[in-house]
Amino acid sequence: MPATIASRAMQFLKILFWCLLAFIAAVFTFGNWTTVSVQLFGGLVMEINLPLLLLLTFLLGFIPTLIYQHVVRWRLRQRLSAAERALASTRAISEAALPVSTAGPAQAAPSSAPTAPEAI
Length: 120
Prior knowledge:
Blueprint: H1 2-31, E1 35-39, E2 45-49, H2 50-97
Antiparallel strand pairs: 1-2
């Protein structure tokens, strides 16, 4: 029962964190809703709102990083599945190479110890 209480508390804290972050972003957006001139190549001038420019800049850096992370995770999953397949085939080969003993512990092989001759 204590684990579910801790889980609910952490879920509440995560929701609270994201709500605070969204509130701060909204306050920043309303406070900085100004038009910014950006000088482009060839003498072109682009006028864009500052929050939108910051969002585009963030996405320009975030999306390649996200793609790279997904590629790395995919490669690691492929390596893990290849290693699991190799381990399974190695286990199958080693189990096939071992002789299977059908005799239980009660049917042990006769010992090669010398026996005493019977007295008449």
